[in-house]
Amino acid sequence: MTLSKLLSEKAKESPAKTCLKFGGRKITYAGMDDGVSRAAGGLVALGLKAGDRTGILMDNCPEYIVSYFAILRAGGVAVPLNTFLTPEELSFILNDSGCRLLIYGSRFVPYAEILGKQVPGLIVTDFRGIPGGEAGPSCADQDDLAVLLYTSGTTGFPKGAMLTHRNLISNAEACKKVMHLSGRDRILLFLPLFHSFSFTVCVILPIFAGAQIILLESVRPFSKVIKSIFRDRVTFFVAVPTVYTILARKRMPVLMRFLIRFIVNIRACVSGAAALPEDTLNAFEKRFGIPLIEGYGLTEAAPVVSVNPLKGVRKPASVGPPLPGIDVAAVGEDGRFLPAGETGELIVRGPNVMKGYFNRIEETEAVLKDGWLHTGDMARIDNDGYIFIVDRKKDIIIVDGMNVYPREVEDFVIRHPAVEECAMVGVPDGKGSETTVLFAKRKENAFIEEDEIRSFMKGHIAQFKIPRRIIFVDGFPKTATGKIKKTELRKWKLKT
């Protein structure tokens, strides 16, 4: 089974059933499959060959999903691009992946001149420039590469996680078993489509189950999300912790709370992409009476590794047991498997684990060892197999569900002629996300303020990566080998 074949099979099973709703538009499974075939034929006519990479740079819209599946049906590899990145950052990914084509939305027309230097062909979202065509069944195999999802590493350079059709479909199948999704469900999708969590859980999973996708452009304005819940009779709600914190704490008329608690059709809410504060979970469930299940995953695992069961035991502060077919373990610094209850690095094994990083042998060997994916997250696993994430071994900062890698920001800021040293950390903001704090040391006799550093980054570093707060210091706490102790910096922030 491949993703292209999956869509075609669902179209044969339920041709007239609504696959996707977007505003006033409704697209049936047959209509989606036909649109994908026509777009795939056009891509082939433009010269796309098996294994060729094609970038997708769009805001949420039906054309995004059509483009994704069309690339696969044409035998190509989809490269979803983070719409929050700058042209400079996007150019690196396009060049690194060797994209042959780029399908982009009208909002990104100003980027075309810069990005066009990296790819031979550019296509806008209304598919102007794609000739008419009809693609036959893709000859791709389930173990062929389907998508390159770029995730930055501790080196600061983005790496393309190579996910196969098997990786993605097996993950959707396992999620379906635990979340009990069926063809009667309607899943609300407002998270960015380029995110691995949203595409697997809100696109591939519902298509696998034959369910309906209710697509919104974004989470803003939030009033549209609330209206859609009622109007579209949403049964499955998927969001990041920040959204649940808002819903749990936001002042809301008594009537609205009553309607959400007793009238709406939502039978389950799913939280992912970042850690969910336990007090948010408790406050949300107490307020609305709807089960909120938290999961854990990472892009390299397609991405879901575990989730608290919808039917069964849900343990506080746990991200649940691993999905069916996935093995997990905690290992020590020496690689020794640790007994239940002991904290070590979480490792994962299963059909969802990536093939490796694109054109990065050393980085792949560092995380894939003897069939196990080393996540870099510290966890303990209890006797029942439930996972408790303790801390991140890596210094990733999660801002509203988006990964921010300090090294990338630090390497850029240090280029400023007035900055001698710098280090960035993340601290909890109390809303289920993190706040970025940059500590900087000025060079002797140099003077620089916060705004100047932010202006220096603007246009080169994505807005969500730019530190929310900048603190100037006279020096840094360091280890014997000269490395800055970021654990101490986090304590500094808490004191200020």
Plain-language structure description:
With 496 residues, the protein is of the alpha/beta class. It contains 15 helices and 25 strands. β24, α14 and β25 form a beta-alpha-beta unit. The longest helix is centred in the N-terminal third of the chain and has 17 residues, at 29-45. The radius of gyration is 23 Å and the shape is globular. The model has no long low-confidence stretch (mean pLDDT 90).
Features of this protein?
single chain; 496 residues; alpha/beta; Rossmann fold; GMP Synthetase, Chain A, domain 3; eight-stranded mixed β-sheet; five-stranded antiparallel β-sheet; 15 helices
Question: Secondary-structure map with pairings?
Answer:
Elements: H1 3-13, E1 18-22, E2 25-28, H2 29-45, E3 53-57, H3 62-73, E4 77-80, H4 87-97, E5 101-104, H5 112-115, E6 121-124, E7 145-152, E8 158-164, H6 165-179, E9 186-189, H7 196-209, E10 212-215, H8 222-231, E11 236-239, H9 241-249, H10 254-262, E12 268-271, H11 278-288, E13 292-297, E14 304-307, E15 327-331, E16 344-349, E17 356-357, H12 361-367, E18 368-369, E19 372-381, E20 387-392, E21 397-399, E22 402-404, H13 406-413, E23 419-428, E24 434-442, H14 450-457, E25 469-472, H15 486-495
Parallel strand pairs: 1-10, 3-4, 3-5, 5-6, 9-10, 9-11, 11-12, 12-13, 24-25
Antiparallel strand pairs: 1-2, 7-8, 8-17, 13-14, 15-16, 16-19, 18-19, 19-20, 21-22, 23-24
Helix pairs in contact: 1-2, 1-3, 2-3, 6-7, 9-11
